[in-house]
Amino acid sequence: MSDVRVIVAGAGGRMGKTLVKAIAEAKGVVLAGAIDAPTSPLIGRDSGEMSGVGPNGIPVTADLGALADKADGVIDFTIPAASVALAAKTAAAGLFHVIGTTGFSVADEQAIAAAAQKIAIVKSGNMSLGVNLLAALAKRVAATLDEEFDIEILEMHHNKKIDAPSGTALLLGEAAARGRGIDLAARSERGRDGHTGARKPGDIGFASLRGGTVVGEHWAIFAGPAERIELVHKAEDRMIFARGAVKAAVWAKGRPAGLYAMMDVLGLKDF
Fold first, then answer.
1. Does 255 show up as a binding residue in the annotation?
2. Which of 178, 244, 246, 249 to pair with 192, CA 20 to 30 A apart?
3. What is the pLDDT of residues 180-232, one digit of tens each?
4. Which runs of consecutive H residues, i.e. helices, occur in the chain?
5. Res 167 pLDDT > 80
6. Nearest-CA neighbor of 214 among 240, 238, 245?
7. CA-to-CA distance for 266 and 247, rounded, in angstroms?
8. Is the preceding peptide bond at 165 cis, omega within 30 degrees of 0?
9. HEC string of 202-244?
10. In angstroms, rounded to a whole number, what is the distance separating the alpha carbons of residues 131 and 212?
11. Active site residues
């Protein structure tokens, strides 16, 4: 099997640089291009050099079209508007699209789903093996315990993160909601302040903390009468997300059109 040729979107960002490094270290995957916003001061820079792996001869560009015929797909950790625009472009070019961006609106989700009718898109709030296993466990625990056990999702990230709750927190909440057979959008509680009244039985609560350089920490808490179960994941390095995204790219090559998740990639869909 030939190497999977991948373009990294958002190559100048923290995750973009980590992805370039992860691809350089991975077997069976090669970097086919590195793109960033047209206004980025990194346009023209060698992507390997700025990622700490040494010069690789692949400069950062803003033109996906010029790279499309030399690639199989795109890995994208950018911002919602950029990811939606990229989904339309990857669909037109016939490239698979791995999306690790979070913070999408309902309209954004619909646009990505439309693009997935033409290409394989793997989209997840978190690409790490550990978090997706945690989500599978949260679903199982939620299905096992009744509404006597309140579900709360707590997350903490670095002070540069721009969306809340995190995509991972929502991933865990959605998993728990599926376990309970409820609609998360109708049963979620986000941000308590002031005189809120008693907690509504069956709701899933979210709380977000921001500070320092925390890569990502998540708790799925099941609080019942006189006992509490906590499922916890603490990320220590962004490389775990990059390696998961590279794994998703290898999996996505040759897949039929559709909207997939890391649960599909890792075989945890029916756990």
1. no
2. 178
3. 999 999 999 998 889 999 999 999 999 999 999 999 999 999 999 999 999 99
4. 14-25, 47-51, 80-93, 106-115, 129-144, 167-180, 184-187, 239-252, 262-265
5. yes
6. 238
7. 9
8. yes
9. CCEEEEEEECCCCCEEEEEEEEECCEEEEEEEEECCCHHHHHH
10. 21
11. 157, 161
Give 205's contacts (C-beta < 8 A, 6+ positions apart).
Answer: 150, 151, 152, 153, 188, 189, 190, 192, 199
Where residue 92 falls (left for φ over 0; alpha for ψ -120 to 50; beta otherwise) is alpha
pLDDT of res. 125: 86
Q: How far is the C-alpha of 18 from the C-alpha of 230, rounded, in Å?
A: 30
Domains of the chain in sequence order:
4-123+238-266 (3.40.50.720), 129-235 (3.30.360.10)
* Structure tokens that stand for 136 in this block: 């599978």
The answer to whether 102 is a known ligand-binding residue is: yes
- Answer yes or no: is pLDDT of 115 > 80: yes
Which neighbouring-strand residues pair with 31?
A: 6
Contact yes or no for 46/58 (Cβ under 8 A): yes
Q: What is the pLDDT of residue 148?
A: 96
- Rounded CA-CA distance 239/246 in Å is 10
Q: Does 12 carry a binding-site annotation?
A: yes
pTM for the whole structure:
0.83
Average pLDDT over residues 260-268: 92
Q: Do 15 and 241 meet the contact criterion of CB atoms below 8 Å apart?
A: yes
Sheet holding 204-210, edge to edge: 188-190, 204-210, 150-157, 216-224, 227-235
